[in-house]
Every structure is written in structure tokens, then in C-alpha cells.
Design goal:
There is one protein chain. The protein is mainly alpha-helical. It has two domains: 1-52, Orthogonal Bundle (Arc Repressor Mutant, subunit A); 69-217, Tetracycline Repressor, domain 2 (Orthogonal Bundle). The protein contains ten helices and no strands. The longest helix has 29 residues, at 2-30. It is globular. It starts with a helix and ends in a 10-residue tail after the last helix.
């Protein structure tokens, strides 16, 4: 019984891993259930059994990603040794790590958010990430109440953090132009890019938020 359950979970995760690669390569529209079944070496019935449809599979992938960040944000929120700036900095680290780990897939996600003819999928995606957004906003607002942070539009500040990452990841060519890299370079595999993005966002957020001089030294 345990072995059967383990094999089921393992097969489901395998299908999801293959799906991430296919969506990243072909996009949502360009990937069919038949393609996925072929690449994952399973039958279509098994995919339908686990997920029901391509849309539900895509939502399941996003749910995994949202859950990863949710757990990280929860851990940061509940850590009494961190002040609000340190919490935001750790969350920035998490988002940059997560986005750069699978840049092509994240571009597919951004494209889907812009598509209006799949409103149900759009709403499911928004719902998955709402809790994470609210938690980060609540950390910023707590810092404001404690007078560590100046009064800011916390929702738009969070949007600025995510928007900065997304802008860099619009395309590999655009990223190389922005960063003045050689054409053909894969910037997303460069540790220096991750460090540069992270430091820039942290500095931007710090300069916008801080009113307490003692915290200006914290990175």
C-alpha cells in the first residue's frame, strides 16, 4: 500500500516536472496533453486522472510555486529575531531565487496573466498568489506602524519588487541589452545577475522605506 502510494506521488511529480519544461519551451497554447503524455512516458488517461485538464495541471504547477514562497514567507514572518527590513530582504532573496530558477516558465506565467480569453485560469492564478502578496504587504505595514518605515503605498511597493524582476526577465535579449551583456549570453545562469538584481531591489526598497538611521546600515 505504501509502495503504491509512493509510486503514485512520484509519477504525479514526474508529470509536473515534464510539464514545466514543456510549458517553458512551447508555451501554454503550444503544449498539448498528447505532447505531455509522450514526453513523460505515460498515457493520457493518467494525466487526466491526476489533473483533469491542461488548465488544472497548469494551476497545480503554480500552486506548488505559490506554496513554496508561502512557506518561506511564513517562516520569515514568525522569526522573532528578524526586524521588518530583514524580513523583507529575505523575501526579496526568495523571489529572485525562485524566478531565476526557471525563467522561461515564469515568462509563460506572465504571458498567461495578460491573456483575456482564459478568464477562469487568470482568476485561479491571481487567487493562488493573493495570500503571499497580502503577507508581504502586512510586513511592510507593520514596519510603518512601528515607525521603522515611512508611510508608503505598501501594495505598490510590493508590485515594484515583483515588477523589477519581471522586467529583467521579459526576454534574454532584453536582459542582455539592459545589463549591457554580450549578445547571446544567458544572463539567467550568471550568479552575478542574481546578486545584482537582489542588491538593487534591496537598495531601492530600503531607500524608499527607512526613516530610522540605525537601520540604514543593514543590508
Amino acid at each position: 500500500m505504501y509502495f503504491t502510494l509512493y509510486m503514485s506521488i512520484d509519477k504525479k511529480e514526474h508529470i509536473m516536472e515534464v510539464a514545466v519544461a514543456l510549458f517553458a519551451e512551447k508555451g501554454y497554447e503550444g503544449t498539448s496533453i498528447r505532447d505531455l503524455a509522450h514526453e513523460a512516458d505515460v498515457n493520457i488517461a493518467m494525466i487526466n486522472y491526476y489533473f483533469g485538464s491542461k488548465e488544472k495541471l497548469f494551476v497545480a504547477l503554480l500552486e506548488n510555486k505559490a506554496r513554496f514562497m508561502r512557506e518561506r514567507i511564513d517562516a520569515v514572518q514568525s522569526d522573532p529575531s528578524l526586524n521588518e527590513l530583514e524580513k523583507i530582504n529575505q523575501i526579496i532573496d526568495g523571489y529572485v531565487d525562485r524566478f531565476l530558477s526557471q525563467p522561461a516558465f515564469h515568462r509563460v506565467l506572465q504571458q498567461e496573466l495578460l491573456v483575456s480569453n482564459r478568464e477562469l485560469l487568470h482568476q485561479n492564478v491571481i487567487a493562488l498568489f493573493t495570500k503571499n502578496t497580502q503577507d508581504v504587504v502586512s510586513i511592510i505595514e507593520k514596519g510603518v506602524r512601528k515607525k521603522i518605515f515611512r508611510k508608503v503605498d505598501s501594495q505598490l511597493l510590493f508590485a515594484s519588487i515583483i515588477g523589477t524582476i519581471n522586467q529583467v526577465m521579459l526576454s534574454r535579449s532584453m536582459c542582455n541589452i539592459l545589463l549591457k551583456n554580450e549578445p547571446g549570453t544567458n544572463p539567467y545562469q550568471d550568479p552575478a545577475l542574481k546578486k545584482r538584481i537582489t542588491q538593487h531591489i534591496k537598495q531601492m526598497v530600503q531607500d524608499h522605506l527607512l526613516i530610522h538611521p540605525a537601520l540604514q546600515k543593514q543590508k
